[in-house]
């Protein structure tokens, strides 16, 4: 009998519902400050570049999906029982065209260091799961 | 912003008079985390010539002071559960200094106890918190993965080969210090550069020997007024400077993966103490990973950004080198139960009091202890001086 530990599932919060709902439709929606034009990740109840205006200072904008690799690691020792069957896997921080950093996985590439170049162009991959939220992963563009 | 002139008046207004670990550290499945707290507390108080009944201020992290105070059976008049990762206990030293100088208390006890290896009930995280929501589902969980991504960015900016060499230098030099510390997990186990390069990958670019131990241990510190410190059984150490702060929680929110908050807390602690880098005889720098040391030395201002690899070259930080670093053997080779910060202070106190046994430095009048907590998230720095 196999006893499979599930991976940790994201629990959406009121300020992030729109983000997660967007991913389920294969769209990336980000918050932007009306005053400063700056994007932010993750979604908050206000813009950290314009805190005074509060929730009214924010608008939601669909991101292009264009991204670059900012940094990565190749995980060999699973940090959680839910990832034991996944190693080695690639964790990454990815810089979107909108100048925000997003934590993610790189998929579709053999997990060898030489296959990853900082700055390489990436495109989104939407990973749906039954009964769970859609995850935003990336693969070389 | 910190008011340096007022902080200078605070310098030296409290002394560390006792330090201790729990009775056995390393692999201790027969002791709970709270048992480590209590053993370390009693050992540190005994070192100071004081008793639990003398304690009127309690500081801890990971646990609430409510739980630790109740377990110890004490009723503190000042309480501080500031919990910002492994740096917390260094920050508690600064908080105790302020509280004692202000008159809230006279005998402050800082305790730590954690069973990183053997805990039967580790503390869960809130699944709605940003890190749980945006990082954990991708397997960005726990320190090795996060610190590895920061280290890879450092390699990109400052050169992969020289960063790798620096990480190896730190792993090997720290082990040499552990080989001089009978309490160290790897006391009997030397290591070589080949061992480093051949050790398995945990999260590339980290080998196993880039990563700290996972142990069971407790530590405690007793702090009191300069007046009462005169009665200290085994000597006292002055708290001369301090700084604390943080700039993110999850690694994906870190403003610059190659510059941690020590860039602020290091200079502040030194300025408050009225000393410069060349005055320091010992650096105790939290080594959750080899990379943590590399980036911390730069942040503290011992060298500039990207200069860390040259700074630690040629085993300069090993026994006999001209820059003694992590003389207890560090989190890498002595002990690391999860939130190691308190042990940087404990070792600094032992060196400043001339009680470090075989690893005792010839001259140690001034030391810096620097804690890093979370995912390079928080730092606490203290400058300590021999009395």
Description of the structure:
The complex is a heterodimer of chains A (141) and B (387). With 141 residues, chain A is mainly β. Helices cover 6% and strands 34% of the residues of chain A. Chain A has two domains: 14-63, no CATH class; 64-141, Beta Barrel (OB fold (Dihydrolipoamide Acetyltransferase, E2P)), CATH 2.40.50. Chain A contains one helix and eight strands. In chain A, the strands form two sheets. Chain A has a five-stranded antiparallel β-sheet with strand order 6-5-4-7-8. The longest helix of chain A has 8 residues, at 17-24. Chain A is globular and about 45 Å long. The mean pLDDT of chain A is 95. Chain B has a single domain, classed as Peroxisomal Thiolase, Chain A, domain 1. Chain B has a nine-stranded mixed β-sheet, with helices on both faces. In chain B, helix 3 (65-72) links the parallel strand 2 and strand 3. The mean pLDDT of chain B is 97. At the A-B interface, strand 4, strand 5 and strand 6 of A face helix 5, helix 6 and strand 5 of B. Strand 4 of chain A pairs antiparallel with strand 5 (201-204) of chain B, so a sheet runs across the interface.
Beta fraction of the residues of chain B?
Answer: 15-25%
> Could you tell me the strand content of chain A as a percent range?
25-35%
Largest interface: A-B, 38 and 34 residues
- The assigned CATH architecture of chain B is 3-Layer(aba) Sandwich
Overall CATH class of the largest domain in chain A: Mainly Beta
Assign the CATH superfamily of chain B.
Thiolase/Chalcone synthase
What would the keywords be for this entry?
heterodimer; A: OB fold (Dihydrolipoamide Acetyltransferase, E2P); 2 domains; 1 helix; 8 strands; B: 387 residues; alpha/beta; Peroxisomal Thiolase, Chain A, domain 1; nine-stranded mixed beta sheet; two-stranded antiparallel sheet
């Amino acid at each position: 009998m196999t006893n499979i530990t599930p991976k940790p599932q994201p629990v959406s919060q009121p300020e992030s519902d729109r983000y997660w709902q967007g991913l389920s439709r294969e769209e990336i929606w980000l918050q932007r400050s009306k005053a400063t034009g700056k994007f932010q990740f993750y979604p908050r109840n206000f813009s950290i570049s314009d805190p005074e205006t509060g929730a009214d200072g924010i608008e939601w904008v669909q991101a292009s999906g264009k991204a670059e690799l900012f940094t990565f690691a190749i995980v060999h020792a699973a940090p959680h029982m839910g990832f034991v069957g996944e190693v080695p896997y690639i964790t990454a921080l990815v810089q979107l065209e909108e100048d925000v950093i997003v934590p993610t996985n790189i998929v579709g590439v053999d997990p060898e260091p030489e296959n990853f170049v900082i700055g390489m162009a990436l495109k989104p991959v939407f990973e749906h799961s039954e009964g769970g939220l859609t995850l935003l992963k990336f693969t070389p563009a | 912003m910190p008011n340096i002139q007022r902080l200078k008046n605070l310098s030296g207004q409290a002394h560390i008079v006792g330090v201790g670990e729990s009775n056995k550290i390393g692999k201790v499945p027969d002791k709970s985390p709270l048992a480590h707290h209590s053993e370390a507390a009693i050992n540190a108080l005994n070192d100071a010539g004081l008793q639990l009944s003398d304690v009127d201020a309690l500081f801890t992290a990971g646990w609430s002071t409510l739980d630790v105070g109740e377990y110890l059976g004490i009723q503190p008049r000042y309480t501080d559960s500031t919990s910002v990762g492994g740096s917390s206990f260094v920050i508690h030293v600064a908080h105790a200094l302020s509280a004692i100088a202000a008159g809230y208390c006279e005998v402050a006890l800082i305790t730590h106890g954690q069973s990183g290896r053997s805990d039967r009930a580790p503390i869960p995280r809130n699944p709605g918190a940003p890190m749980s929501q945006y990082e954990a589902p991708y397997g960005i969980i726990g320190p090795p993965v996060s610190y590895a991504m920061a280290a890879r960015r450092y390699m990109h900016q400052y050169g992969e080969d020289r960063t790798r060499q620096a990480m190896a230098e730190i792993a090997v030099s720290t082990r040499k210090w552990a080989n001089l510390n009978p309490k160290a997990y790897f006391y009997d186990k030397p290591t070589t550069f080949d061992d480093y390069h051949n050790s398995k990958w945990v999260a590339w670019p980290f080998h196993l020997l880039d990563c700290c131990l996972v142990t069971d241990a407790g530590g405690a510190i007793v702090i009191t007024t300069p007046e009462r410190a005169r009665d200290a059984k085994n000597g006292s150490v002055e708290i001369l400077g301090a700084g604390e702060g943080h700039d993110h929680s999850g690694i994906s929110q870190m403003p610059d993966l190659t510059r941690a908050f020590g860039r602020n807390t290091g200079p502040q602690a030194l300025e408050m103490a009225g000393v410069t880098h060349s005055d320091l005889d010992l650096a105790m720098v939290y080594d959750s990973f080899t990379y943590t040391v590399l980036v911390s030395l730069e942040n503290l201002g011992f060298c500039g950004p990207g200069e860390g690899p040259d700074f630690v070259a040629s085993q300069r930080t090993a026994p006999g080198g001209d820059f003694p670093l992590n003389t207890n053997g560090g989190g890498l080779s002595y002990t690391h139960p999860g939130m190691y910060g308190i042990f940087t202070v404990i070792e600094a106190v032992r060196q400043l009091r001339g009680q470090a046994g075989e690893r005792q430095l010839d001259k140690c009048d001034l030391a810096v202890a620097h804690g890093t907590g979370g995912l390079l998230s928080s730092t606490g720095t203290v400058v300590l001086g021999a009395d």
